[in-house]
Write a structure and sequence with these properties.
The protein is mainly alpha-helical and 419 residues long. It has 15 helices and two strands.
Length: 419
């Protein structure tokens, strides 16, 4: 048995590096989901703004993430994953400190931009790190389990943020989040270096990265644009949930805290994702990522519609469960579609581009929520986002080819067209 065969047969989810990556991702998710839901209250009470301003400030981080994710991927491909990821976490920690000590509109805007740049860079590299250390036949399973970290972070964050805010105010929430980002950096520092990719050469000699950067960017964008558009629609749903679910449910008569309060719906959502992920971890590998994504989008559309019409905790929880089941296989499925056409030397760049689409959606969710709520109601905001899932399903069906799982080989590494 060769060394490559031994490496491929080893279950990466049972290794220490996998769980370090898992912990880093969870901490990053807690930071985001703990700080974001308190911003509408911070904007209203500290800055004197309304829901439109709150949505715009929240969206600034997503706009910054759009730039940070591909940039961080390209930088990591050249300079290394560790330095880029650590720098991102430190920048995000500084952003949370800035938000805590500078109660001004321009300070909040600058903080959100810096947080979007730093947190997105770190989380993009954590995901790319996992792909780099995982054999191709195991990626569906590894990404499924890894994705649980995102939803664990989402389950813990709003509860933590709400509890800390009640005890010490929004400033304390931001200080706690700064400490969490530093813990993320410490975890990343313990990770081993991912496998280095060999330089690409031609008959005339090595190809320099600067000369290939434009071509690499175009090839990577072509590989990820369809799953990226679908991800943008789906994460629009997450964006509006994170930013305005509590406001939406409180306006319908649901209390903000307590076991049957609006904040607890986040926990119901996250737990449903976790349980569904454990049950459906191998679904993308068994039926293929295209069919798995189609199922996910259908569940998201139904769940967002139920949330839009919810008037109590139990109906809202039913919608959250549908959304949770929908998100369960979505992340690994879209990542598998995005990576199957990426060459190894530009994988981090491609994953950064793909992840930037999730930021577009996340920011759009906050913007749609803020603007529609200012002119109509939160119900219509959630219904509009539910309709986007149907549009995404059409795009996926028209522009993505289906690949039977049994027709895939033991590797999904495509040939580098520059080679």
């Amino acid at each position: 048995m060769t060394a490559a065969t031994v490496a491929a047969s080893r279950d990466v989810t049972r290794t220490i590096p996998f769980w370090l990556i898992f912990i880093a991702s969870t901490l990053g998710g807690v930071t985001n989901s703990a700080s974001t839901p308190v911003i509408p209250e911070y904007v209203e009470n500290t800055l004197g703004g309304d829901s439109t301003l709150a949505g715009s400030i929240i969206a600034l981080a997503a706009v910054a993430s759009m730039v940070a994710m591909p940039a961080a991927g390209a930088l990591a491909d050249r300079r290394g994953y560790r330095l880029t990821a650590l720098s991102g976490s430190v920048i995000a920690a500084g952003a949370m400190l800035l938000l805590a000590v500078l109660p001004a509109l321009w300070g909040a805007a600058l903080s959100r931009v810096l947080f979007g740049l730093g947190n997105a860079a770190a989380m993009t590299l954590v995901m790319a790190w996992l792909v780099a250390i995982t054999p191709a036949p195991q990626r569906g399973k590894a990404l499924s389990y890894f994705g649980l970290s995102v939803w664990i972070g989402l389950a813990l964050g709003p509860q933590l943020g709400t509890a800390v805010e009640q005890m010490g105010g929004t400033t304390t929430v931001f200080l706690v989040c700064a400490a969490l980002e530093l813990a993320t950096a410490a975890t990343i520092a313990l990770l081993p270096h991912p496998k280095k990719m060999p330089p690409v050469s031609t008959a005339t000699g090595p190809i320099s990265l600067p000369r290939q950067s434009g071509k690499a960017l175009w090839h990577s964008l072509r590989a990820v644009w369809v799953p990226g558009v679908v991800a943008a629609a789906a994460w629009c749903g997450e964006g509006i949930m994170i930013a305005f679910l509590i406001v939406h449910l409180v306006s319908a008569g649901v209390p903000s805290t307590g076991i049957t309060g609006a904040a607890s719906v986040y926990a119901v959502f996250a737990v449903s994702v976790i349980l569904a992920r454990l049950a459906l971890a191998s679904l993308p590998d068994r039926i293929g990522p295209l069919r798995s994504t189609a199922i996910s989008l259908s569940c998201l559309a139904a769940g967002l519609t139920v949330l839009a019409l919810a008037t109590n905790f139990w109906v809202a929880s039913a919608g959250a469960v549908l959304i949770g089941v929908g998100f369960s296989p979505l992340y690994p499925s879209l990542t598998m579609i995005a990576t199957r056409e990426l060459v190894p030397r530009n994988r981090a760049l491609g994953l950064g581009l793909f992840s930037s689409f999730t930021s577009i959606g996340y920011g759009a969710g906050a913007l749609v929520g803020g603007f529609v709520m200012a002119w109509a109601s939160s119900m219509w905001a959630f219904l509009i986002v539910a309709g986007l899932q149907v549009v995404a399903l059409v795009v996926l069906t028209v522009f993505t080819r289906d690949e039977s799982p049994r027709d895939r080989g033991t590797t999904d590494e495509p040939r580098d067209p520059a080679a």
